[in-house]
Amino acid sequence: MTYKGAPLRRxxxxxxxxxxxxxxxxxxxxxAAADGEGLRGTLRLQGQPVNGVKIVVTTxxxxxxxxxxxxxxxxxxxxxxxxxxxxxxxxxxxLPPNAQIRxxxxxxxxxxYEGNVSTVLFALEPKAAAGQQPADSSDGGQFWRRAxxxxxxxxxxxxxxxxxxLGLSLIYGTTGLTNxxxxxxxxxxxxxxWFFNTGIFGLAGMPLIPAAILAVIxxxxxxxxxxxxxxxxxxxxxxxxxxxxxxxxxxxILLRNLIQFFFGPQTESFTEYNAQAGITVGPITAAPKxxxxxxxxxxxxxxxxxxxLKTRTGKAARAxxxxxxxxxxxxxxxxxxxxxxxxxxxxxxxxxxxxxxxSQFLKFTMGQxxxxxxxxxxxxxxxxxxxxxxxxxxVVGVFIQVSTLWVPPExxxxxxxxxxxxxLLFRPQGILxxxxxxx
Amino acid sequence: MRDDTMTxxxxxxxxxxxxxxxxxxxxxxxxxxxxxxxxxxxRFGGLTAVNVEHVEIQRGSITALIGxxxxxKTTFFNQLTGFDHADSGEWTFNGRKMNGLPAHKVARAxxxxxxxxxxxxxxxxxxxxxxxxAQGQKGESFFRxxxxxxxxxxxxxxxxxxEELLExxxxxAKREDFAGSxxxxxxxxxxxxxxxxxxxxxxMLDEPxxxxxxxxxxxxxGHVKDLREQGMxxxxxxxxxxxxxxxxxxxxxMAQGAIIAEGPPDAIMSDERVIDAxxxxxxxxxxxEEELQAQLHxxxxxxxxxxxxxxxx
Amino acid sequence: MDxxxxxxxxxxxxxxWEAVVYGLAAIGVNIHFGYTGLLNFGQAAxxxxxxxxxxxxxxxxNAPFWxxxxxxxxxxxxxxxxxxxxxxxxxxxxxxxxxIAAAEIIRLxxxxxxxxxxxxxxxxxxxxxxxxxxxxxxPPGHYGIGPFxxxxxxxxxxxxxxxxxxxSCLVVYLLMKSPWGRVLKAIREDEDAVxxxxxxxxxxxxxxxxxxxxxxxxxxxxYGLYNGSVQPDVFGTEMTFFAYTIxxxxxxxxxxxxxxxxxxxxxxxxxxxxxxxxxxxxGYIPFMTSIQVGPIRYALxxxxxxxxxxxxxxxxFGDKREIAIDAR
Lengths: 439, 313, 328
Description:
The structure holds 3 protein chains of 3 kinds.
Chain A: H1 6-16, H2 23-27, H3 31-35, E1 38-42, E2 44-45, E3 48-49, E4 54-59, E5 64-69, E6 75-79, E7 84-90, E8 99-101, E9 107-108, E10 111-112, E11 117-119, E12 124-126, H4 139-175, H5 182-198, H6 208-237, H7 241-263, E13 279-281, E14 284-286, H8 288-310, H9 312-322, H10 324-329, H11 334-359, H12 366-381, H13 386-403, H14 412-426
Parallel strand pairs in A: 1-11
Antiparallel strand pairs in A: 1-6, 2-3, 4-5, 4-7, 7-9, 7-10, 8-12, 13-14
Helix pairs in contact in A: 4-8, 4-9, 4-11, 4-12, 4-13, 5-6, 5-7, 5-11, 5-12, 6-11, 8-9, 8-11, 9-11, 12-13, 12-14, 13-14
Chain B: H1 4-7, H2 10-19, E1 33-44, E2 47-58, E3 62-66, H3 73-80, E4 88-93, E5 96-97, H4 103-109, E6 111-113, H5 126-133, H6 142-145, H7 148-168, H8 184-197, E7 202-206, H9 214-229, E8 233-237, H10 241-247, E9 250-255, E10 258-263, H11 265-268, H12 272-283, H13 289-312
Parallel strand pairs in B: 3-8, 3-9, 6-7, 7-8
Antiparallel strand pairs in B: 1-2, 1-4, 4-5, 9-10
Helix pairs in contact in B: 5-8, 7-8
Chain C: H1 3-15, H2 17-35, H3 43-59, H4 65-87, H5 92-111, H6 116-119, E1 125-126, H7 130-134, E2 142-145, E3 148-151, H8 152-177, H9 179-189, H10 191-196, H11 201-227, E4 229-230, H12 237-250, H13 257-281, H14 293-311
Antiparallel strand pairs in C: 1-4, 2-3
Helix pairs in contact in C: 1-13, 2-8, 2-11, 2-12, 2-13, 3-4, 3-5, 3-11, 4-11, 8-11, 9-11, 12-13, 12-14, 13-14
């Protein structure tokens, strides 16, 4: 219900049904649910909201009422037609891998009274591997254990950001384009993998790993075509970088809404690796998929980094980034290099999307939501420097997660973005950027 | 030799007289300096792009700042005009401390520069370009701008002055054209005319002849000489020796960031140090590793600056 | 097919509250982007600050209406100063990233549970427009011809709204004719040149940012006053993007460009949305569901925006020789 832009869209739809002053009531967001009967609740794990969990509401005799997923604040709400008894089932498969319901029973049967919204309680507790019940007595130990856990999660997030940031930074470096549509490449990767994973065009669903590989290939091709058919043409026309940057916002809106058109506004998960028992390594507990994901991300980053440093194309790419005119005059095929960069950028953005979908959930705004963090990482590291982008992204990822020790989790991105602005104040060239580059 | 008495104007004679008995040493004191710089340093990473110990610019003269590529001329120029910061050093203009001042305050103080890559504001008309140069405009303050009667009168005066200048620079026929439609040489002229709208005491020209069609160079040179006749001081960066010989009263030579020689244009060509550093760098001696580095760096910085300019817009 | 509804809503859109709200946002963006070349991608934040300033002052602090307006305006000015100070000396894209990030920060704070007592969380604030409508001079009734027309409340809002729009246009007209506007346009072209002519570029950019933000913030007021509520998610990046689309549609650096652009934009947006919805509802487009009309309409805006920028960057009425967009 509370996906981005919903109130505006609802307001616009309401206007369509414009009939005098009626619109007033329709446009106000809380109107529908608050006035009638309903059910609602909030899912939290160790104080942090848990989103993307599916809640199924049926009547007492099993007639379906509605299915919802919890939002970013862990909240969900279902209006019901009339007072009475309802059955609320929490889909355990959609819980984060490290969470379980206290007591184990995923079904509640609350009663809704006339004009009332009943709150349904599902208490969550961390799931630990057998025999590894966390039993820390001292508060200090708890704090450091948590800090270590959050740092680990921060690296997890940071690596995903880094994958997206690397592509963004390379494209910026070689073409000067600040691509606001890069987030949609991330979303696209996740969504394409999801379609392969769950089945599309009558094809049966395939396991996630081949689905992800296909998605990466598809998105690499999409990156290639985007440059071949669109950005490359614009460059030929001599379109300025600022104009291209503004155009990229249009591209972002177009892609995002096309994705929503096919994918829908709801949140989804891949069919596999959803409920994994955590493994504990030192103070850190995480699902095996997280370790695997981080390993893959790290490997990809290292491969791309080495390719930039060692291969002919990589060197050519860095030469183009340094000075396109000089590179062209020394015999480098600039267009070809840029096209390769777009292909690689699209592919690794898609991988970032798959990983993001794996560690959180899929939604058509997922790329848009992470894009600002990617920008924060890239700017922090120094706009246009590939390795700076990596460092910046890791800093952003860790900062975001660790800051939740003190900041409410819902505001964790605020902290990161605020730091971005503060960094620009004192060191506008970023951590690794050269002062001369910013003019 | 041609007969100088016929072509030398009183102002030129005065300038030459001031320079007559000066020793040809780097940093030599001038009788009436308008600009004095001390220990100006600029480092890029480990490289020292500018390291000027002492230099003075004589009032009412045309002084050329020359040197091989990568000598740090433009960087020094940028520092003096507030477009680049100095790692250390200080300089005074008319006895007023200028280091650390932002570019617009330098311009207001009477030191106005032009750019190597002409910065005509191409989507403004020629006349609007000119009007922009005028200082102390009432209509440039937000609230007064809202009441046209407060600035109309002044605007008319400015327009009249601009028209005079445009006539002098033979741009009056183009007054309502967009500056972007002018030729390269005309843009140089426009930029110079616009700088004069500021009513500067010291005009600083960064490679005024770069990229100008040879047919226009004589006219441009004439305008530069004219600046001195109007009582202004001119400092310009150039690396074309012939140009320097023709119009300058005094030449300052930079190499590897430092000032290595000064002297009148005819004599400077035969100066041992200049031949070594300037001509030698081009014709005879192979480049040393450091020079190569410095040159590479300057080239890179210049290209980068251009690239930045491209992206900044 | 209900052609009458399609027709009336479309006509209403051209002169309705959307055109006022987005027209004001776009006039602000036009000052920033069209005249000065500043890429403020956080225009929605200025509107949010204003709308919330008004709403929170009245609902939470029980302040009088005009105090709410004053707080909203002060908030917009403050936001411009805070955003501008670190970024206006840097390259254009830094301002873009910082403003878009700041807009997101503000939205997240407004919707946070942590500050729910003040900003009302994701439900926002409602019930703060009674004072505004208490000033309504129109007696109750229907104002218009046949099916076209508004009730007295909307008439009052539109009267005030369009007055502010026209006043803003007048201010822009006067300023851009003046030497002040000349400096702005010159900055758009090349700030170093302007600096070399003794103008304090930073100060002018800041003035431009404040002015555009303040004009845009009136859009936030009118949004809140019309809908009777403000919600954080309304003020997302789409709102800013719509404002940019409108500016480019009407022609950047044109005094009436944003106004005409807003009218055309909303006519198209509402018409296409209604038409698609009707077509889908009546089964003419079998492969689409009514839920999919929303995204496809937004996608069309994106597509239209791209085509406009690529093929007609000067907009409908712009002068190709004098536009900011493809300066280089």
